[in-house]
Design brief:
140 residues, 2 domains, binds zinc ion, 6 helices, single chain, 39% helix
Length: 140
């Protein structure tokens, strides 16, 4: 059981699982939206797709993961966050839960929510709904 072998681009993409349990190494699946792509043995094409479909996640990956140092920019301007910024953050959190197989009810954690609100300076921020985070597929 080697997680690194079956996933691509930091876990954002997985090889397609065939009905017989083998992996189809010519197809990769986006773990966030379940889109299927032909895999060309190039992570640059994966990065391109990721940026096109999930810009918030792409930024998070380029920053080396969900690091605190990438978060202050969200609330740096002071005023209320834009919808786009909140969506990016929400997507990053959904990705974090999916990638690391965190329990989905972590998004109902009031302490986590309050910490993020404090960091953002925006008390109206809501963590992603639990149903949107139920995307973790345990690696076999
Ligand atoms: Zn996707």
């Amino acid at each position: 059981m080697n997680k690194k072998k079956d996933t691509l681009l930091n876990g954002q993409f997985r090889f397609k699982l065939l009905p017989d349990g083998a992996l189809d190494k010519t197809k990769e699946i986006c773990v966030l939206c379940k889109s299927e792509f032909n895999y060309h043995r190039s992570s640059s094409s994966l990065s391109y797709r990721l940026k096109a479909k999930h810009p918030g996640v792409a930024e998070t990956l380029e920053g080396g993961g969900l690091r605190q140092t990438t978060l202050p920019q969200f609330g740096a301007k002071g005023g209320p966050l834009s919808k786009q910024t909140k969506n990016k953050l929400t997507e990053a959190i959904v990705f974090w839960v999916a990638k690391n197989c965190r329990p989905v009810n972590i998004v109902e954690d009031v302490g986590l929510r309050d910490a993020i609100r404090e960091l953002l300076g925006d008390s109206s921020y809501h963590l992603p709904a639990r149903k949107t985070t139920g995307v973790c597929i345990p690696l076999h």
